């Protein structure tokens, strides 16, 4: 991919927040410290009744990429949908308030895309309890056409009947 095109891709990061005062700073720091900086960071406070909103306000005041939204509590799916409606990125990704990502996550994703600009990019998750465990999704790394998406991918995605309604998809699985 042309370096200029690669640097022009805007990624919307939606972070739903509900009573996450002990985790949200780490989540926000992990996004703000990304080596890929062209980010539209949408933090949706879902009616928190702890100090989460105040923490988010402090971060939003320090970084213009953060859009802080507040809504009445409706659950994580509701907060994500609220964020999606306000996203302006070429890609949308989600980060839970109690999770964090490696500083190279978005740079690695952008490097793996090419001129075809896939519609969906799936990547791995590292789950930490006592020891880090890499959780790989079940999709082989390749581009999928719409029929393959319907057969091999959609059944494993949440809320597909409401989430994606397109006639053609490309997906690239990033094995990071």
From TrEMBL:
Top-rank lineage group of the source organism: Bacteria
CDD domains for this protein: Glyco_tranf_GTA_type
Domain spans labelled Glycosyltransferase 2-like: 12-146
Gene Ontology molecular functions: hexosyltransferase activity
Record-linked SUPFAM superfamilies: Nucleotide-diphospho-sugar transferases
Secretion signal span: none
PANTHER family named among the record's database cross-references: GLYCOSYLTRANSFERASE, UDP-GLCNAC:BETAGAL BETA-1,3-N-ACETYLGLUCOSAMINYLTRANSFERASE-LIKE PROTEIN 1
This protein's name: Glycosyltransferase 2-like domain-containing protein
Species whose genome carries this gene: [Bacteroides] pectinophilus ATCC 43243
